[in-house]
Every structure is written in structure tokens, then in C-alpha cells.
């Protein structure tokens, strides 16, 4: 069953982490912290939660990407999009789809 498999993986991972030299840096990431064994979490001395971006952060994030790509955009379109909560992965997906649509249809960038 999946619970048994998760336990075996967790035990194997903890044993491997315990064998590492002190000069090693291990970075782990998860979007399901609730499923991670507490004993495994204790092996990470620093834990940091990345929260969803706020509206202004979303606008800045999108603007910087488009500026780096030298794509003209309407900032009002970006502000409107930013009013809705989106995860970073969805934002990146939406930007990619909009760029593809823009190129394919030879039109302005609209998110």
C-alpha cells in the first residue's frame, strides 16, 4: 500500500541523510508538508515556507518576465490579471500560453 511505501522511502531517505558529511547542503521542497514525517523534517535545520504572491508581487513578477523577453504589454491588463489569486506555476503557464497565442496570431500580448 502507499502508506507502507512512503514509510520505506522516508526511512531510506533519513538513513542517507544521516550518512552525509557536515559540509553538505541538502535542499528539499514539497507542496505537501502535511505528508512529510516529522522525524524527516527535523533533519532540516532551516525550514522556510514560500507563500502565494500578493497582487503587487504578481504584477511585478509578470512585468519583469515580459520586460526581460522584450515583449510589449499593457500594464492595465497585468493589473487586472493580478487581482485574482494565482499560484506561481499557473502564472508561468498563463504567460507561456499568452506568448504562444501572441506569436501564433500576430497580436498584442494579452494575459
List keywords for this structure.
111 residues, mainly alpha, 5 helices, 56% helix, elongated
Detailed description of the structure:
With 111 residues, the protein is mainly α. It is 56% helix and 0% strand. The protein is built from 5 helices and no strands. It is elongated, with a radius of gyration of 20 Å.
- Low-pLDDT regions: none
| Total E-strand runs | 0
Strand content: under 5%
Distance between the termini: 43 Å
**Main beta-sheet annotation:** none
Count of DSSP helices?
5
Order of helices and strands: HHHHH
Computed over alpha carbons, the radius of gyration is 20 Å
General shape? elongated
Q: Helical proportion?
A: 55-70%
The overall average pLDDT, rounded, is 90
Based on secondary structure, the structural category is: mainly alpha
In short:
By secondary structure, this protein is an all-alpha fold.
Topology overview:
Layout (H helix, E strand, L loop, with lengths): L1 H18 L18 H4 L13 H14 L6 H8 L5 H18 L6
Helix pairs in contact: 3-4
